[in-house]
Design brief:
Layout: H1 5-13, H2 54-67, E1 71-74, H3 77-88, E2 94-98, H4 103-113, E3 119-123, E4 138-142, H5 154-163, E5 167-171, E6 189-193, E7 207-211, H6 214-227, H7 233-243, H8 246-264, E8 272-274, H9 284-290, E9 297-301, H10 305-314, E10 319-320, E11 330-333, E12 345-349, H11 355-367
Parallel strand pairs: 2-3, 2-4, 4-5, 5-6, 10-11
Antiparallel strand pairs: 1-7, 6-7, 8-9, 9-12, 11-12
The protein binds pyridoxal-5'-phosphate.
Pyridoxal-5'-phosphate binds next to helix 3.
């Protein structure tokens, strides 16, 4: 049985404190050392900076409490995704990825993995299971997909993939462990960009892989050690600090997003809106079944590029920036990166501002659109 997320959040805040001796610092020390004192047999807790670091270990301990699974920290979300794919795939195998997910995962697969003899196939997140999973070795899911916010049934897909002998990886970046539990739904590996809500302050890039499968965990750890894709101690320290407030930030962000989505739905300047928490959203029933929260991302389609840009720039409380999940709300037109969305499609990331002024600000920008 999975632990209540609120219990997990409380445990997280006292994880370090439980193991302290008199005089130890309560806050996590930032240990930045490539060398560790290692006379005789190399059997110490830390050996060399590419292999171990006490600050990463503390971070991974926190992440493991959130995921209810062993975790491996990486210097970015893409480094975590690369680790999961390189640790599971070999030449001659087949990888299925979403055609409408995060575009850099597609680039990694089509520009690099395919050149190493991996067959890469793509399907849209909506209808991802159509065609089945026979002959597919690794299935990579992103639900809700970034940026379109379509969903697929993680539990049903993971069960089908397992029955065919394959491995399921879920990119849980848009939801965090407080919003969705892919391992509990049957996934083998979870990957996340902790650059987003887990870091939360837009001052660090990080990522992690979580898995309860001992062999997969060892492969991911070997990949990090051998490829050298290691986080800096400073970045690990910042993420550790961010995780301590993730639950309270995520709660505020999801609640505000629900209020904002309900208010903007039906505004005359909004042609279409996607938010899994809206009763009118095509994915709402599935979202209720598989997600604990409905997230902080809203997809807004305005009339055209000019209206979308005018909305973003006129809003005092929106940072016009790529990435999402920060304490400050932000927005961007995703077509500028080549995503298959309308010219006027805006991905809105709801931050931690109190909802009333934020909503007033967004409404007045929308009201002023010609
Ligand atoms: C941002 C993002 C990534 C990549 O994360 P980085 O930390 O930028 O490397 C991967 N997947 C999704 C869904 C993302 O939004």
């Amino acid at each position: 049985m999975e632990k209540d997320p609120r219990k997990r959040a409380a445990d997280l805040l006292h994880l370090r404190g439980q193991g302290l001796s008199k005089g130890d610092p309560v806050a996590l020390p930032l240990v930045s050392s490539s060398m560790f004192h290692l006379p005789g047999d190399p059997d110490a807790a830390a050996s060399y900076g590419r292999v171990d670091n006490p600050t990463w270990q503390a971070l991974e301990h926190s992440l493991a409490v959130l995921e209810d699974a062993p975790c491996v920290a990486f210097p970015s979300g893409m480094a975590a995704i690369s680790a999961a794919l390189f640790a599971t795939l070999t030449a001659g195998q087949t990888l299925l990825i979403p055609s409408d997910g995060y575009y850099v995962t597609r680039l990694l697969s089509t520009r690099f993995l395919s050149q190493l003899g991996v067959r890469v196939i793509q399907r849209p997140t909506l209808g991802f299971a159509e065609g089945g999973f026979d002959g597919i070795d690794v299935v990579f899911i992103e639900s809700p997909s970034n940026p379109g916010l379509d969903l697929c049934d993680i539990a049903a897909i993971a069960a089908m993939v397992r029955a065919e002998g394959g491995i399921t990886i879920v990119d849980n970046t848009t939801m965090t462990p407080f919003g969705q539990r892919p391992l509990a739904l049957g996934a083998d590996l979870v990957v996340s960009s902790d650059t987003k809500a887990p870091g939360g302050h837009s001052d660090v890039l990080m990522g992690h892989v979580a898995t309860r499968d001992a062999a997969l965990l060892e492969a991911v750890l070997d990949w990090r050690k051998i490829s050298g894709a290691i986080p800096s101690a400073q970045a690990a320290w910042l993420l550790h600090r961010g995780l301590e407030t993730l639950e309270v930030r995520f709660d505020r962000m999801c609640q505000s997003a629900q209020t904002i989505a309900q208010t903007l739905e039906g505004h005359k300047a909004v042609q279409a809106i996607r938010y899994p928490g809206l009763a009118s959203d095509p994915a709402h029933d599935l979202a209720k079944r598989q997600m604990l929260r409905f997230g902080f991302l809203i997809g807004l389609t305005l009339a055209d590029k000019d209206q979308a840009e005018a909305f973003i720039t006129a809003s005092r409380y929106l940072r016009p920036a790529t990435s999402f999940g920060g304490v400050h709300s932000s927005a961007e037109r995703r077509i500028r990166w080549g995503d298959d969305v309308a010219e006027g499609f805006v991905r809105l990331s709801v931050g931690c501002e109190p909802v009333d002024p934020l909503l007033d600000d967004l409404l007045s920008s929308l009201d002023n659109l010609a």
